[in-house]
């Protein structure tokens, strides 16, 4: 017999909830701070001279020295970091030296392009990868399992650069089914008002179907490519999660009780792998956000991965740090999101 | 079965939905260019000094004098200035402004704008400012040294410089004429509109800048009131396509008109494709070998001479660089006033070995750094092989562009393989860096001079000749002076010019009059037309 909750119980529960929210925020702040500190130090000890990037190879020593001081590089490292952090707290991420623009504006431009691509990629990965993994596990050693294994093997071992180029050659160059590199065809460039920065979403908002179709024809190939790589990962993980569940006793019990195989697999086993699967999907989405540099280069996709890589090679630390913060926040949020989903999906956490 | 049918229907529908969009041809009045434009840092003429930035400024701004896009060999021509006069003592040049020209804002182009633009570039003192300050202008004196009245601008210089030198420098982008009213209306503090002009323009050129999204695309729109007539292409879209194979695919599919960064392999591929052609243009970049004179072995005159026979000029240009460079053995690129086209050296290891043996050198070891670019590494390995034939071991370490440049500027690279691109269209731009180094000490920190970077103590007569050539009033005599200078350089300098850059541009068959700017300028769009 459980007594009904008293007001003091409810207050305690509320306190717990606040404490957990407070803890989450604190860990978020600490994570980001640590991330910034490490990135900052790596950036400063890197043997690349950011001043040279600004003033160019032809600058005189006087021009070089002036820029060196103007960039605050004459100060000790901890003062530079302190200045950077105080600026960041006021929302000022500084100016990128490789584009000449405010880092905030740069990120506002490149991040939606990446999110659009990564979201579609993950969607494809999940929609194909999860069923593939489940079926592969259910019919272990069967034809689907073999196919899944080969698909995953190719996904793990093929260089993305090569696959991307072959994809372009076949589907764009020879068959002409999809649009070429770039986010849009030339005639649609700048036709749709920029609201979210994601062209698919913006063209839908504007109700411009031609622009949507054009944008879709450009995104589908790179997104499929990214989707393929996340599919390889997701299907392998799904398969092994499922195998573990299918050998559990409750599955045997369900089967003995005469439950249909479909219900055993989807109704029982699959529901139990939903929780770890969410984490796998969230991580895979996170890695697509930062790790699709090569895809972005091949498909002339002006996204965050390319932006950060280019900035890093130029010693453009404002841009690198700004991009790192965005990726860091994304990972923390994705973790938070999968935590929340856990609570929804796992009855015990209620 | 029903499942399969729906899947098929969805597949088919999506293929049909996508297919028509893929065959978009470029519109007849729009020029679509694929180019790596990710090097743009600033669009302000006072600061912009990268290729892609100069490409924009060349078209959105005019200068007092400019090149004729249909014939660059004619040299500088009247532009915003319709004529000029040099004072009897050679100390000043007065340029008379063309009447009735307007900026994109509608403001008239006045002598005041021209003078202000030059003064501004000197006062802001960004990297390209040296092109103007070499005539004796300083932020402090420039208001008195560059003057104007209602119809003309006058430059008062500190020496009687060669008029060709001054006027060639006025074709540089840093000398672009900016709309003073517009720039000052957007000024912040004392920046003369610098922050605003970094991302905007205020010119009078044949195109206006209608959009720029860094690392993605930029768009130019024709300026219908352009003084020399509205350009044929009403819109120019330049897309950032970093990958050569992607550029080639776009070109072959007809989605772009011009591809500017095709790799040699893709050039070959495009050349055989239907409806597409390739245009070769010599550019200003010189690939050279720099032998650091701090190194004992490399400073031996026999070693310097032998090196010139150890470069397989034809072989490297043909096999390794695949036509992106042609052999060229003097420091002035073809297309420049006084450029020497002699090529006295050829690949001859036996001769090199003889020279070294005569000087008592039979073995040696060098360790050098090379930038991790395919072509530089290839050249380095070719050199390594030919050095091995004469008993010298060269170890190659690879590092990034930025790292190599840092070390080079610190005089720490024994054998440097790299390129030098001229800063402006006058021969002094290369003479003053290859053949001029008045103080070879470490303390001089003349990091901008190639001779200093290689610790090359340029002989006094060469230093003097370089300076004298900037003062020669007669253009022909001046050209002769540069020829003499290059001959001596070719014979004795430890910096060995090897190749000149050839740029191959792939384009649709119907594109006429494309001009990347050859060795003296940046790309020009206003003369480009599109046939049927």
From TrEMBL, chain A:
TM segment ranges: 21-42, 117-138, 150-175, 215-234, 273-299, 319-342
Q: What is its main location?
A: membrane
**Which PANTHER family does the UniProt record give?**
D,D-DIPEPTIDE TRANSPORT SYSTEM PERMEASE PROTEIN DDPB-RELATED, DIPEPTIDE TRANSPORT SYSTEM PERMEASE PROTEIN DPPB-RELATED
Full protein name: ABC transporter permease
Which PROSITE patterns does its entry note? ABC_TM1 (PS50928)
What is the recorded membrane topology of this protein? Multi-pass membrane protein
Cellular localisation: Cell membrane
Q: Which InterPro entries match?
A: BPD_transp_1_N, MetI-like, MetI-like_sf
Q: What does the UniProt keyword field contain? A: Cell membrane, Membrane, Transmembrane, Transmembrane helix, Transport
Q: Name one Pfam family in it.
A: BPD_transp_1_N
* Top-level taxon: Bacteria
Q: What does the similarity note say?
A: Belongs to the binding-protein-dependent transport system permease family.
Q: What is the lineage of its organism?
A: Bacteria, Pseudomonadati, Pseudomonadota, Alphaproteobacteria, Rhodobacterales
- Listed GO cellular component terms? plasma membrane
- The residues covered by the ABC transmembrane type-1 domain are 111-342
Q: Report a single Gene Ontology molecular function.
A: dipeptide transmembrane transporter activity
